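hey so i finally got around to running both of the ones u sent me last week. sorry it took forever, my laptop kept dying halfway thru and i had to restart like 3 times lol. anyway pasting them below in the order u listed, first the sequence line then the structure token line for each. didnt double check formatting much so if smth looks off just lmk and ill redo it

first one:
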Amino acid sequence: MGCVQSSGRCKPRFCDTITVLELNASIDPKPTTIDESSDVVLRYRTPHFRASAQVLVPPVLKREIWTVGWIQACNQMDFYNHYGNEGLSSWELPELRSGRVLALSDSDGVSYPWYGSTSEIYTIVGPTRRDTKLTVSMNDNFHPSVTWSVPIATLGSPAQLTGIRRDQRFTTWLVARNEASGETTLLRTVRWRMRLRIDVDPQRPLGQRARLLEPLLQDEPQVLAKNELIPANALDQPNANDAQMLMWRPSNTQPIMVIPPKHTHT
């Protein structure tokens, strides 16, 4: 733990006296579920990543506002939907894919830099006379829809989806921040990963096409012994949802952008 910006040397800095009493990070111990109720798309829902922390903040003696909460960034996104010999579709983060950035904000798109603005953060308005014991929590999972036919096909085209592969990595930080000065303390750093492989036989009847290959249980998140700094671009726009684009990559012709990103780094 340590402040990113220093504000004094003679006595302990306020931010260094903030204490994490308890932290839990886990992924629900159950497999991804598959939904074939639609004749247009296959849906699946991954287990939830969950993080919760109890934090003790000493009295805030000045007229300051401190926020304690979760910030998350996406470090890797491989998301491929295979359509046999036709090709594959891919949700991509261009800046991440090219190596231009190492992480993208996974904020809700409104509450930058925070992951969310309800249970994910706690705000303390000083001055306060007593310690503040608080709890902040967050959860994350994926529940996309993948078209049975290739993304550029006309409505009513036959099912050609043969497989789905997804591998994403995230870093999640528990952070305390002085809202006026921007002074920031990294309290804890968590890394986690979500993977899946689904095999699809498009020739089978709807409801019997897809099966989960792996994993049945996800790897447990890692709470790092040493905090990892937050990349600057992971604190601001665009968030991962707005930066992603859907590409169709045919086997024999040039790639086609099906859905462009809503927002890119300038």
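and the second one:
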Amino acid sequence: MRIAFFVNSIEDETPTFTTTSLAMAALSRGHDICYLTPGDFVLRADDSLSVRGRVLPGKRYKKAESFHAALQGDEATVETMDIGEVDVLFLRNDPSLDADGRPWAAHVGAMFGRLAAARGTLVVNDPDGLSLAQNKLYFQGFPQAVRPRTLISKSIDEIRGFIDLHKEGVIMKPLQGSGGRNVFKIGSTGEANLNQIFEAVSGEGYLIAQNYLAAATEGDIRLFLMNGRPLEKDGTYAAIRRVPAKGEVRSNIHAAGTAVKVEITPEILAIAEMVRPKLVEDGMFLVGLDIVGDKILEINVFTPGGLSVMLDLYGVDFSENIIVALESKVAQRDAYDGAIANRILAAL
């Protein structure tokens, strides 16, 4: 089968990205792959949908660096193909990265993903589900038992009132965004720079204020879910603990956080089970939960990362499991001659 990976840009891809791991796993299992970016869709006058994909030759790469060099170099070619030639469209872009510089590109994946699904291509995560998750407000649709106390507002007075109610402090961040950008811990309304922080964050739109969780000093746990259930291979869960750098409240690897092994307890599995029904209903095939204590801070449904780090820590390659799951979905799609809706098949 052919898998198309939709990303923000080819130039920004790296050997350590999870998309790289997935693409290499697909090649190793004998599949064709290509990469798409926001400008690569063409809807023609006859209502046919084509894509301009960056195609790599069907060979196996032993090292991620070699794969990355081939993707960026002359070994890759650009081919125009009908979307019917693509079995799986894997949406792996981060809309927040395009929100400021080229807002037209932010939601192209979901927009054209719907058209691709209507023409029989399996699209994961489901584009309609992703449209619901275009900002962190999506998180409020999950059970309150797994969420921190949260305020969403653009009012400094509302923010101040929320801070006064939480003596342990609050975390403030933009409603839209990722990668730990503009995330601040506020201890009290007496902090001298509160107004400056508010102005900086509110400039991006609505703000989220959440009660600070003391367990955050130990970092958060990134746990992968596939088809709504924890991703597991040979008794090892696809999970890491991300420990923040000294003086940081963010544990993101991009923000100098450190990844270490983590034991997945029955309590963590219970948290994952709590969010499973909605993720399945929304067609979320591959998801990353960020867990602190007994709460989930975020649910990453666009570009959950960390598979290469997990391979280094545990010696377990979870990417192959993900590709095998896609093979099964394509087989089910073909067996039912497209009668199963994409949203159901995506998380089946």
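quick thing i noticed on the 2nd:
The radius of gyration is 20 Å.
anyway thats it, ttyl
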